[in-house]
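FORM 12-B: Structure-to-Sequence Request
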């Protein structure tokens, strides 16, 4: 071959190498999965150097004494099942020496290390797979600050890429790594380190979001202990239903598919869908009956005062009568004598007082019944209106209503336990949630979290809240979450204002809502047929 041909071949080889390095950089930038990154790094390094085997170690700083994590291994001649493990980071091992010192090791034969070297090859691995490690090139993977974050180890540079290395032929089919390959691999190791650091940064961001979401859920549950676990259950149901939607291959749901990032996005939205409850007054949030506990206690004392007043007024009336007719006691040793007109008047006062006290107790029973968060029938409604006109004489002698207009407004709620003002306060949590979530600098893959959470109380017919959106305006993820949210509210047994429903009854309610164009019919049927509720351990025919 002429000199010009040699020069041309060298230039061609270098151009191919540059193209390979650029391809590796492009490939590394396309994935955020740590396993894929490490396998890609090792595969490309082996291809460039014609290495038979190799491995990648990462330095673990999460423990008191840093250690090496054996993360990836490849072996062309002896494919084995890889299992990740941890090893001490000491200078006694080849990888440990490189990790600690930051020096590169290029050994022509790892079985013949210098006698004064602090490191030695552990031959037990070779023996276990019937192998022979000869030439070894081990490089530190250092970030831009010069910190070693991992170790790249290449084994047995072969004379032919398709050669199979055995203990018998290792000395003939392998060769030492050249200085040229060492320089190229140093560059590639640096590129790999940058990619790993980017991957670790991405993972740290994901861990940050995960930690933030979990902490936020704790805040929600601390504010509303009655619904503890609700956010996690809704998230589990939402994720499972989203996965089932992605698996549908025919029908109206077939075009819809969620990737891994979208599943994470809808999971975060579900976990945080009630975060706005931190902006709702706590008394309203945990209200179990129509009157607040302190209100009921005040009304109870008012009833007790009214009864004492009736008893005192009766005693005073009898006393005045006796003072006005002192001769009565002298003539009659038995004041209850029916033949005595004065005695009859005293008995009449007693009877009037007893009737008034009995009426008071009757009204108290009516009030307790009306205080329950049930649908209010006509009869208690009429009796409550009578009670609204009932007054008593206070300690200052003034006539006052036994039940105030504000208290009566709460007791007259026809369904549930919230007044319209309180219901608006509860419903405002959706807007609070959105206003909070949209301030968070979500990553590109999670940008939809605020809007998904914002729509979980919307109905397809426009009757939902807070914006009254129609079907085509509601994200499909929000429609999925709405079903999960309603199902958990129906089956949850931790609500003080209602009993939990059986799974079958809850499914029927969901189907009725879909029939009236409140919920997505296709999603509800998929929820039922694929038994999405089983993710919570629920089974049909049982109580939740």
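FORM 12-B RESPONSE
SEQUENCE OUT:
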């Amino acid at each position: 071959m002429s000199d010009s041909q040699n020069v041309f071949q060298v230039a061609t080889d270098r151009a191919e190498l540059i193209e390979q390095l650029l391809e590796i950089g492009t490939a590394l930038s396309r994935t955020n999965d740590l396993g894929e990154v490490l396998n890609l790094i090792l595969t490309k390094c082996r291809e460039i150097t014609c290495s038979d085997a190799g491995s990648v170690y990462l330095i673990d700083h999460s423990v008191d004494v840093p250690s090496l994590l054996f993360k990836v291994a490849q072996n062309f001649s002896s494919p084995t099942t890889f299992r990740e493990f941890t090893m001490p980071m000491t200078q006694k091992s080849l990888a440990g020496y490189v990790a600690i010192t930051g020096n590169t090791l290029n050994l022509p034969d790892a079985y013949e290390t210098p006698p004064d070297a602090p490191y030695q090859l552990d031959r037990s691995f070779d023996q276990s797979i019937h192998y022979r490690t000869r030439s070894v090139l081990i490089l530190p993977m250092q970030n831009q600050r010069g910190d070693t974050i991992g170790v790249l180890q290449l084994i047995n540079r072969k004379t032919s890429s398709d050669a199979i290395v055995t203990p018998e032929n290792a000395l003939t089919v392998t060769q030492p790594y050249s200085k040229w390959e060492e320089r190229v691999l140093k560059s590639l190791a640096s590129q790999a380190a940058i990619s790993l650091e980017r991957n670790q940064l991405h993972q740290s961001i994901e861990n940050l979001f995960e930690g933030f979401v979990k902490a936020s859920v704790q805040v929600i549950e601390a504010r509303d202990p009655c619904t503890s676990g609700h956010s996690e259950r809704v998230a589990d149901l939402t994720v499972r239903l989203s996965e089932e939607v992605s698996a549908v291959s025919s029908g109206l749901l077939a075009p819809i598919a969620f990737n891994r990032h979208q599943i994470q996005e809808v999971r975060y939205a579900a976990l945080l869908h009630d975060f706005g409850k931190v902006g709702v007054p706590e008394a309203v949030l945990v209200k179990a009956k129509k009157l607040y506990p302190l209100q009921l206690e005040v009304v109870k004392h008012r009833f007790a005062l009214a009864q004492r007043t009736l008893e005192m007024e009766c005693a005073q009336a009898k006393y005045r009568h006796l003072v006005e007719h002192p001769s009565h006691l002298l003539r009659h040793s038995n004041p209850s004598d029916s033949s005595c007109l004065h005695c009859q008047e005293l008995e009449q006062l007693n009877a009037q007082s007893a009737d008034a006290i009995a009426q008071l107790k009757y009204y108290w029973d009516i009030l307790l019944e009306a205080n329950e968060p049930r649908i209010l029938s006509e009869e208690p409604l009429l009796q409550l209106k009578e009670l609204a006109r009932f007054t008593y004489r206070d300690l200052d002698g003034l006539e006052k209503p036994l039940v105030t207009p504000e208290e009566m407004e709460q007791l007259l709620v026809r369904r549930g336990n919230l007044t319209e003002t309180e219901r608006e306060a509860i419903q405002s949590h959706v807007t609070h949630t959105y206003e909070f979530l949209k301030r968070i600098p979500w990553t590109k893959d999670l940008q939809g979290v605020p809007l998904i959470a914002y729509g979980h109380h919307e109905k397809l017919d426009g009757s939902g809240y807070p914006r009254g959106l129609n079907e085509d305006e509601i994200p499909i993820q929000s429609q999925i979450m709405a079903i999960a949210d309603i199902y958990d509210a129906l089956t949850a047994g931790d609500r003080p204002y209602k009993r939990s429903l059986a799974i079958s009854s809850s499914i029927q309610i969901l189907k009725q809502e879909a029939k009236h164009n409140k919920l997505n019919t296709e999603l509800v049927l998929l929820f039922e047929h694929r038994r999405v509720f089983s993710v919570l351990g629920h089974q049909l025919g049982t109580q939740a």
